[in-house]
Amino acid sequence: QVQLVESGGGLVQAGGSLRLSCAASTDINSISSMGWYRQAPGKQRDLIAIIASDGSTNYKDSVKSRFTISRDNAKNTVYLQMTSLKPEDTAVYYCAAHLIGQFFWGKGTLVTVSS
User: Is the separation of the CB atoms in 71 and 55 below 8 Å?
Assistant: First the structure.
């Protein structure tokens, strides 16, 4: 089983930046892909960024110019660098790991962007 622990959330003013971290309990090279999702109050949980084992990335259109997903294989950690944050980015951010036939979630970290 893969354990994922997110960190780095908090309160930030609009226009500011945060870097979220997701530490995995296993070698992330063995994981097909890892991603970041977010869920705002009253809304569905959306995929916002994903990084595959080969390093390829994909982003939700609304964050593509502002967010960057990356990985540090030596630390078994995936990051989400968020810049130019907007109040509409306020949500609980979840890390996820996808393996063939399996899917694992972290507990989430809250990001609140004030105007």
Answer: yes
Residue 55 to residues 11, 41, 73, 84, 109, Cα–Cα distance (Å): 30, 31, 11, 24, 24
d(CA 19, CA 64): 15
Write the burial class of residue 87 (CB in 10 Å: 0-12 exposed, 13-18 middle, 19+ buried). exposed
What is the tens place of the pLDDT at every residue in 27-48? 888 888 999 999 998 999 999 9
C-beta of residue 12 within 8 angstroms of C-beta of residue 19: no
**How many helices (DSSP H) and strands (DSSP E) are in the chain?**
0, 11
